[in-house]
Amino acid sequence: MNLGRIDEETTANIGSFEGKGPTNIVCDQVMLSAEARSLSRDKLDRQVEHMTTVLDHVANQMGGETNIRTVSMYPSYRFDENDPVVHTAMKAVQQLGRSVHLVQSGGGSDANHFSNKGVPTVNLGIGYEHIHTTDERISLDELNKIPNLIVEIIKQANVS
Q1: Considering Cα of 150, then 113, then 122, then 102, what sign does the dihedral take?
Q2: What is the distance between the alpha carbons of residues 7 and 20, in angstroms, rounded to a whole number?
């Protein structure tokens, strides 16, 4: 099964694999939790299809069966520097004397849901260090800058 970083837009992981029962036998049922994420809906659909096909094939090969349930947790969205929501955020950051670095994110957030509902929304980096690790942190200095950024975004949105 193709897992990990599939391409520049797509990632897939197995989160857990659990079989219950005595340790001296092959259990009759296991629960697998996995995820696939992509900035492209087509690539996401292909990855999910690949994962389910592999699971079905292996289960059938071993005389078992699968009961696969897929749930869409974060709809894909994409903006570029020409989109008004990105332009507004960039101007706000620049007005505060900060540098703008546009990067793609493969994660899921409220921005996915708002954008999917027609409210263009982007994620902003706000000074985190070592994000999504056990060393994740944000300095108080960076934390204290967030309200200024919010106010400047509101100002820039009113100018646009």
Answers
A1: positive
A2: 34
Q: What structural domains and CATH numbers belong to the chain?
A: 4-62 (3.30.70.360), 84-158 (1.10.150.900)
The pTM (predicted TM-score) of the whole model is: 0.74
Is there a contact between 35 and 13 (Cβ–Cβ < 8 Å)? Answer: yes
Give the integer Cα–Cα distance in Å for 47 and 50. Answer: 5
Residue 127 corresponds to which tokens in the numbers above?
Answer: 């000074």
3-state secondary structure of 88: helix
pLDDT tens-place values along the chain, 160 residues long = 999 999 988 999 999 999 988 888 888 889 999 999 998 889 999 999 999 999 999 999 999 999 999 998 888 888 989 999 999 999 999 999 999 999 887 778 899 999 999 999 999 988 889 988 899 999 999 999 999 999 999 999 988 6
Tokens 């000074």: give the residue: 127
